[in-house]
Specification:
The structure holds two protein chains of two kinds.
Chain A: H1 5-22, H2 27-48, H3 69-100, H4 109-120
Helix pairs in contact in A: 1-2, 2-3
Chain B: H1 7-21, H2 26-51, E1 56-59, E2 70-73, H3 75-97, H4 100-106, H5 109-128, H6 132-150, H7 156-187, H8 192-198, H9 204-222, H10 230-234, H11 240-264, H12 272-292, H13 296-317, H14 320-351, H15 362-365, H16 367-381, H17 387-402, H18 405-433, H19 439-445, H20 459-477, H21 479-492, H22 497-502
Antiparallel strand pairs in B: 1-2
Helix pairs in contact in B: 1-2, 1-5, 2-3, 2-5, 3-5, 3-11, 3-14, 3-20, 5-6, 6-7, 6-11, 7-9, 9-11, 11-13, 11-14, 12-13, 12-18, 13-14, 13-17, 13-18, 14-16, 14-17, 14-20, 14-21, 16-18, 16-20, 17-18
Classes of the chains: A mainly alpha, B mainly alpha.
Chain lengths: ~140, ~500
C-alpha cells in the first residue's frame, strides 16, 4: 500500500508538538498539546486508509475508486471524543484557577511528605488531613 | 439469546438517561439505577451459564460480517461481567445508604447516578467488545464517567488528583488510537477474530511493534509498574464508593484487555520476559509503597497496584494453568479490593479519618467494623482457606510447573508480596483497631456508650459491604466449581473457539 509521506510527516510533527506541550505543567498548555496530538493521530488514520479516492457513496463513485470509509468513521468518533475532552479539561483548568489562582498540575503532597520523612529518617508525625475545604465561595472576585 | 449481549450496555445507558432527567427526585433515581444494575447482574449470570457451552456472538445492526460492530461473550468475558456487575450493585446500594446530608456535602447527588450508570455501561461494553475500535469507545465511555466521578464537587484535592488522572488517560487514549491506526494500516481490519487470523502474515518486527504498543496502552490502564504512578496519586481523594468501584473495575478492565489481546492476537510470541519483569516489579514495588503509607486509602491504592502484578504473572507465563490463576485472581481481586475501600469509608465515618495516626481502638468502639475489615484483609493477604489463597496457590503451582528462571522469580516475588501484604494489613489492624481510641476518634464517634453511635453505620452500607464479603466467601466455598469454569475459560483462550464462533468457516 503506498503511504502518503506528507501526511505522515504532518502527523509526526503534530504529535511531537503535542507531546512537548503535554509535558508542561499548566493545564491549558496540556489541553493545546492534547488537541494537537489528537489531530496528528486523526491524520495518521488518513494515512492508514490508503490513497485518497472519491466519496465512498454507492452510485456516485465506482467501487474501485472509492476511498476507504471505515477510518473516516473512526476519525469522526475520535473527533467527537476530543471535543468533549477539550471541554472537560478546560472546565478543570478553570476550576483549578478559581481555587489556586493558577492551573498547574500540582505535586502529590503525601508523596513529598513521605519523601521528606525518609530523608529525615524519623518516625511519622501526625498526618495533616487536608480534608474537604470547599466553602462554596468563589476565590476569584468577579 | 444472542441479543442478550446488547442488554447490559443498553440498560445502563437507558438508566443513565432516565436518572439524568429525573435529577430532582433522588429516591426515584436510586430506584432506577439499582434496578438497572440488578438487571445487568441477572443478564450477566445468564451469560455465564449460556457461554459455558459456546461463545455468544452478536453482529450489531446486522451489517455485512466484519464491517459492523460485533459483541462477543466467551466464558472469560461473561465471568468478568458478572463479577463486575455484582460489585457495582453492592457499591450502588452502599452509596444510596450513605446519609442524605453526607451525600449532599460530598457529591452533588443528581449527577452521581447517571455517571455511575455510564461507567457500568462502559465497563460492560469493554468486556463484550469484539473489535478494537469498540473497545476504544468503551474505554472512553468509562473513562469519561470516571473523570466526572473523580472530580465530583470540584474541591482542591479532587481537582489536583483529577488533573493527573485525566492527563495520563488522555495520553494512553492517544496511544491507543495510534495503535489502532497502525493495526488497520497493516491488516485492514480492527475485528479481533479477523486480526488473529491476519496478524500471522505480517513480518515479525511489525507484529512485535503492534504487540508492545497495545500492551503499553492497556498497561497504563491496568497500572502495571513503570506505568502505575498515577494510580495512588488519584484514587484516594474520591468518595469511598467511587474509589471502591474504580479500584474494583477500572484496572481490571485493563487486565482483561491485556489477557484478551495477548492471548488472542499474539499467542505465538508471548512477551514472557518483559511481562515477567514488569509483574515482579509491580508486585514488589507496589507493596513496598503500601507499607510506607499511613493513610489507609493510599495504602489500599498501593496494594491494588501491587496485586495487579499477580494477574500479570499469569499472562507472562502464558500457559492455560497460569491464565486460569490470573482470571481467578482478577475475579477475586475485583471483589476484595472494592470491599476494603468500602470498609475504609465506614472507618472514616466511625473514626473521623482514614489516617492511621488519628485512629485507634476501633475494635472496641465497633466490633462489627472490626469483623468487616478483618475478613477481606486476611483474604487480600492470602490466608487459607480464603479465595485469595486459592488464587495465589493456582498461580504459584503454574509458576513451579513452568520452572523457567523468570517463573521462579515470579513465584518468589509472589510469596514475598503476599507476606508483605499481611504485614501492611496487620499494621492497619494494630494501629486502627487495637489500642485506646484517641480524642479525635471519640469526638467523631461519641463515647463508648453513646446511643447515637448506631447511626454511624447505616444498615444499607453495612449490608452491602457484608454482601461483598459474602461474595468473596462464596468464591471460597464454591472454589471447585468456579476454578473449573476458570480453567475451561483459560483453555478456551488457547483453542480457536473464539475465532470459530465469530467467523465461522466460509465467512472469513
Amino acid at each position: 500500500m503506498p503511504a502518503n509521506l506528507t501526511l505522515a510527516l504532518v502527523a509526526g510533527i503534530l504529535i511531537a508538538c503535542g507531546v512537548y506541550l503535554i509535558t508542561e505543567r499548566s493545564l491549558s498548555r496540556i489541553l493545546v498539546g492534547v488537541v494537537l496530538a489528537s489531530n496528528g493521530v486523526n491524520i495518521l488514520f488518513l494515512v492508514a486508509s490508503g490513497p485518497a479516492g472519491g466519496a465512498p457513496i454507492i452510485g456516485l463513485t465506482p467501487a474501485a475508486l472509492m476511498s476507504d470509509p471505515l477510518p473516516q468513521a473512526m476519525v469522526l468518533t475520535a473527533i467527537v471524543i476530543t471535543l468533549s475532552v477539550a471541554a472537560f479539561v478546560m472546565t478543570m483548568a478553570y476550576r483549578s484557577f478559581q481555587i489556586n489562582g493558577n492551573d498547574e498540575v500540582a505535586d502529590d503532597i503525601e508523596d513529598a511528605r513521605i519523601a521528606a520523612l525518609a530523608e529525615a529518617d524519623l518516625t511519622s508525625e501526625t498526618y495533616e488531613d487536608l480534608g474537604f475545604s470547599d466553602t462554596g465561595e468563589d476565590v476569584v472576585s468577579e | 439469546m444472542n441479543n442478550l449481549l446488547a442488554v447490559p450496555t443498553l440498560l445502563c445507558l437507558l438508566g443513565a438517561a432516565v436518572t439524568f432527567v429525573a435529577g430532582r427526585h433522588p429516591a426515584f433515581q436510586r430506584a432506577v439505577s439499582v434496578t438497572a444494575v440488578a438487571a445487568v447482574c441477572a443478564v450477566a449470570g445468564l451469560l455465564v451459564w449460556l457461554t459455558d457451552t459456546a461463545p455468544l456472538v452478536l453482529w450489531v445492526g446486522d451489517w455485512p460480517k466484519t464491517l459492523g460492530i460485533v459483541l462477543v461473550a466467551d466464558r472469560l468475558a461473561a465471568l468478568m461481567l458478572l463479577v463486575a456487575a455484582l460489585v457495582s450493585l453492592a457499591v450502588l446500594v452502599y452509596s444510596t445508604g450513605q446519609d442524605e446530608d453526607e451525600m449532599r456535602r460530598e457529591t452533588p447527588v443528581s449527577i452521581f447516578h447517571p455517571t455511575f450508570l455510564l461507567l457500568v455501561a462502559g465497563v460492560s461494553n469493554a468486556f463484550l467488545a469484539g473489535d478494537l475500535f469498540n473497545l476504544f469507545v468503551s474505554f472512553e465511555l468509562l473513562l469519561f464517567a470516571s473523570y466526572v466521578l473523580l472530580t465530583m464537587g470540584g474541591t482542591e484535592d479532587r481537582i489536583r488528583a483529577g488533573s493527573v488522572y485525566v492527563v495520563v488517560n488522555l495520553v494512553s487514549s492517544s496511544l491507543f488510537l495510534v495503535s489502532i491506526a497502525s493495526i488497520y494500516a497493516a491488516t485492514g481490519t480492527v475485528n479481533l477474530a479477523q486480526l488473529a487470523l491476519r496478524l500471522g502474515d505480517l513480518p515479525v518486527e511489525v507484529r512485535g511493534v503492534l504487540q508492545v504498543m497495545l500492551l503499553a496502552v492497556f498497561a497504563i490502564k491496568a497500572a502495571v509498574f513503570p506505568l502505575s504512578a498515577w494510580l495512588p496519586h488519584s484514587y484516594p481523594t474520591a468518595p469511598a464508593p467511587v474509589t471502591a468501584v474504580f479500584a474494583g473495575l477500572l484496572t481490571k478492565v485493563g487486565v482483561y484487555a491485556i489477557i484478551r489481546t495477548q492471548t488472542l492476537l499474539f499467542q505465538a510470541e508471548p512477551l514472557t520476559l518483559l511481562l515477567g519483569v514488569a509483574g515482579v516489579a509491580t508486585m514488589v514495588i507496589g507493596i513496598l509503597g503500601a507499607i510506607a503509607q499511613t493513610e489507609i486509602k493510599r495504602m489500599l491504592s498501593f496494594t491494588l497496584v501491587s496485586h495487579i502484578g499477580y494477574m500479570i504473572f499469569g499472562v507472562a507465563l502464558a500457559t492455560p494453568a497460569a491464565l486460569a490463576g490470573s482470571i481467578f485472581y482478577a475475579a477475586h481481586h475485583i471483589t476484595i479490593q472494592a470491599t476494603l475501600f468500602l470498609v475504609a469509608g465506614l472507618m472514616e465515618r466511625v473514626g473521623g479519618s482514614t489516617s492511621l495516626d488519628r485512629l485507634g481502638g476501633l475494635a472496641k468502639l465497633s466490633p462489627l467494623l472490626g469483623v468487616l475489615f478483618f475478613i477481606p484483609a486476611m483474604n487480600l493477604a492470602g490466608i487459607p482457606p480464603l479465595s485469595g489463597f486459592i488464587a495465589k496457590l493456582g498461580l504459584l503451582q503454574a509458576g513451579v510447573a513452568d520452572g523457567t528462571p523468570i517463573a521462579w522469580m515470579l513465584v518468589v516475588a509472589g510469596v514475598a508480596t503476599s507476606l508483605l501484604t499481611l504485614y501492611a494489613m496487620a499494621k492497619v489492624w494494630n494501629r486502627a483497631f487495637w489500642g485506646v481510641a484517641p480524642e479525635s476518634v471519640l469526638e467523631s464517634s461519641g463515647s463508648y456508650d453513646s446511643p447515637e453511635r448506631g447511626r454511624l453505620l447505616p444498615r444499607l452500607m453495612v449490608g452491602s459491604t457484608m454482601g461483598l464479603i459474602g461474595l468473596a466467601l462464596a468464591f471460597t466455598f464454591f472454589a471447585g466449581d468456579l476454578y473449573g469454569y476458570v480453567e475451561r475459560s483459560a483453555s478456551a483462550l488457547f483453542d480457536p473457539s473464539y475465532i470459530a464462533a465469530v467467523l465461522p468457516e466460509g465467512t472469513r
